[in-house]
Amino acid sequence: MTNHGDIAEYALRLGDDALVHGQRLCEWCADAPFLEEDIAIANAGLDYLGRARMLLQYAGSILGRSEDELAFLRDAPEFRNLLIVELPRGDFAFATVCQYLLDEYELLFFEALTNSKDETLAAIAAKAIKEVRYHQRRSVEWMRRLGLGTEESNRRAQAALDELWGYVAEFFDADELETRVIADGVGVDRSALEVVWRDRVGDLLDEVELSLPGDEWQVSGGRSGVHTEHLGHMLGEMQFMQRAYPGLEW
Amino acid sequence: MSEASDLEQRFEDKIAADERIEPKDWMPDAYRKNLIRQMSQHAHSEVIGMQPEGNWLTRAPTLERKSVLLAKIQDEAGHGLYLYSATETLGVTREELVAALHEGRAKYASIFNYPSLTWADIGAIGWLVDGAAIVNQISLQRTSYGPYARAMVRICKEESFHQRQGYQIMVRLAEGSEAQKQMAQDALNRWWWPSLMMFGPHDGESAHSAQSMLWKIKRMSNDDGRQKFVDQTVPQADIIDLTVPDPDLKWNEARGHYDFGEINWDEFMQVISGNGPCNRQRLGQHKKAHEEGAWVREAMAAYAKRKAETAHD
Ligand SMILES: [Fe+2]
Ligand SMILES: [Fe+2]
Q: Which of residues 10-69 of B touch A (CB under 8 A)?
């Protein structure tokens, strides 16, 4: 039997990934390169916020805290998201490459999580995988447009890729808690996803004339609460209302 | 009878019979121009209106409110898209319409030139601004130009959700702490008069109204719309104990309507001529996003071309 605390923590990690990424997508509101993209980014944002809510509700049901307490009343070191989702939103190339790398990872991750012995996580994964398939089709198409479009778009996409590549190793790192939930058949062994992920991403980068960056610079720490400087600023904004007016209903 | 006046007669007959004018039908040049002006202004309003609401998206107080607000703003972007497409049936392109906005030749609803300063403003915008827009848009479902009327039918289906989410925010605030009540009252104070201004000048003073009414582009006068909005909104304020900021507001039993005070038309003129608090910010943001997006649109076009060429090889 998996310890309930472990499941709560595991759900919280996944919920934080979705919440922090969803919050970054909200920053594109009325700022996309054209109106159809405003709609598409909002669509993805809604998927991530919906997923964040399900996962935080589930974690909260075990921890005795509401989704909003978890989202708005934890400080940065208590957040457990992957670093890649908290990076400043950047230009459209940065956002696109980030989304693509994440989509390929989530595709493998949620596919595997649908087999979780934890029924709630399996059900959330079953819903998520449908959304992720759609996101991935879209981001692949954008990678083609940027990589094969103009010299400028290719240059911007390459610069984004070089920057973001330092954060992809974290997709595949497992700590002790994760090792326990994997052993119980609840969690996904992310290290097992890496080879397929690298194959798929490598193939696409090749196709769209972008070059694979080297692995010499790698940063991690999100899962243990050691974040970039950016997360605190994001939380300052996101949590403003609950911090300025504690304990009220909205 | 000459061919031109024959066409004109057929057009007038259709309008008189309440039939819809469709894109392929002959229409007077002035009718087409008038529609392009009004429809593109409507489209720009949907899009610029995303900004004051987007201002609170990253700070929404709960995850549920954040999701609902994002869905609402996404709807508005969709409304902009339907309306640009409907306007394009008149023989203009979206690029031309956006250029006209950027060059100050096209307007958008001047209410969006006011700032959204607190969370309560998100409530007030949904309740009042969408509430006023609905009154107008319901009447436009019967507008004489087919594509515009059909766009309005789709849009109206979504608008009642917008008004409701705004009012629910206000209800929650009005039931809340002193600070929350005050926040709600302050938002009502700031958004009430601009909402009444959304209906435009008095009927006698409206530049395009008379001709638009004759052509049945407009189906309701500015003053009638405003009265309708006041009549339906004041009781909603009463229910949640908020005070409409108008000392002259009073139920008139004989008329069966509320009497209300005079709008500050100087302020109205200032804001529509570009001197509202946020005119420069709103237009500046739209231009910035458009300019920063230029390389993206170019890449998309270049890729589409490349793909088409390889398909031919
Ligand atoms: Fe709308
Ligand atoms: Fe609306």
A: 47, 50-51, 54, 57-67
* Domain annotation covers residue A249: no
Domain assignment of residue A150, given as a range: 4-244
Q: Which of A35, A156, A237 lies at the smallest CB-CB distance from B77?
A: A35
Give a yes or no: residue A13 inside a domain: yes
* Chain A residues lying within 8 Å of B295, measured CB to CB: 150, 152-153, 156
Q: How many domains does chain A have?
A: 1
How many other C-beta atoms can be found within 10 angstroms of the C-beta atom of residue B128? 27
Q: What is the pLDDT of residues B172-202, one digit of tens each?
A: 999 999 999 999 999 999 999 999 999 999 9
From the number of C-beta atoms within 10 Å of its C-beta (0-12, 13-18, 19+), residue A134 rates as middle
Report the CATH number that the domain containing residue A96 is assigned in CATH: 1.20.1260.10
CB–CB contact B293 A92 (8 Å): yes
Kindly state whether residue A233 falls inside one of the protein's structural domains. Answer: yes
Question: Which of B53, B62, B286 to mutate against chain A (most A CBs within 10 Å)?
Answer: B62
Ion ligand 1 residue ranges (Cβ < 5 Å): B 46, 76, 79
A100 in a domain, yes or no? yes
For ligand 2, the distance from its centroid to the CA atom of residue B270, given in whole angstroms, is 25
Residues within 8 A of A (CB atoms), B 283-312 only: 285-286, 288-290, 292-303, 306
The pairs formed by B151-156 with CB atoms below 8 angstroms and a separation of 24 or more are B151/B79, B151/B82, B151/B83, B151/B85, B151/B86, B154/B82, B155/B79, B155/B82, B155/B83
Cβ contacts of residue A207 below 8 Å, gap of 6+?
A144, A147
The pLDDT tens digits for B213-271 are 999 999 999 999 999 999 999 999 999 999 999 999 999 999 999 999 999 999 999 99
